[in-house]
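Internal tracking record. Fields below are filled automatically when a chain is submitted to the structure queue. Please do not edit lines marked as system-generated. If the sequence contains nonstandard residues, flag them in the REMARKS field before resubmitting.
Queue: standard
Priority: normal
Entity type: single polypeptide chain
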Amino acid sequence: MDAPDIHIRSVGTALPGPAIDNAALRRRFGMPSLWEQWIDEFVGTHRRHLAVDLESGEVRHSLADLGELAGRRALDGARLDPRDVDLVVMGTSSPDLLMPATVNEIADRLGIDQVPSYQLQSGCTGAVQALDVASQMLRSGRRRTALVLGGDTCAKHFDVTMDVASLRPEEQINGVLFGDGAGAVVLSTEPAAGSAVLKHVFVRLVGRNRPPGQIVEWFGRADRGTGRPPVVEDYKAIEHSVPLLAAEAFEELLGELDWKNDELEYLMPPQLSGRMTARITKGLSAPAAQEISLVAEIGNTGNALPFFQLEAALPRMAAGERAAAVAVESSKWIKAGFGLEKV
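SYSTEM-GENERATED OUTPUT FOLLOWS
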């Protein structure tokens, strides 16, 4: 028997708090106006939403809070009850706790129980990895409906009382690149009006003998006094490697689908920053495709961003139209992508 098509029935997303622009960051950290100009021009990200209060540093939203809201919106959009879900998969690089897994906290809040659940820890390809795991399990015929989640709350790694001017550039960059958020989709073997078919998903580790592009520490009581910075990013390595890996992933995805470059109506490129995304997109040959990018307005929300792109793309797609998405994980280098076709 042929494997069933996997349909994206609905998408839900969630952002914490109001948007914070670059001027607000400059004022909060007492930086010069040239610093704000540097963010606008060099980074190209203008706003982001943070799960912590910028003034006090108090955590106002957990990843579970955002994931629950996104999950509810996705289930409502699909007109499904939590009892209809028979599989939950989540991708994140910043779970609330090491244990219990955030995916299980979200499932509990949504009223989902007695089903398989999986949490994948990864950077910006985690959402695609979650889609891959869920779609493969659905194609086996043993499950019909999956809730797939992705999100990150990176702001909890930063101290809002720090002297930003004293930080190295590779530490400063993380404070302006990232935002917090979560997203969810309902995947099903059963079609619905307006659904899109997930035609192909691929994930490939390409990090052998390559130093990490980003390191996020996790401190316990024994090692928290080491003085190591919590987050370090080799932005030069990322700037060099991500466009190349994105182009490779794009060509591999089209080859697997037997699609031509000019047959795409929509392109969802990696969402590192406004400036980097523009550079990456130039290297992806899709002359007729409309770019779906949101990073300049909401920041790099990690594993949430593919869901924001899907939320923007799906209502625009007409029957027969195609979309391609590409993601790159730069901590230990993963390239990934997926293709969609509206039915």
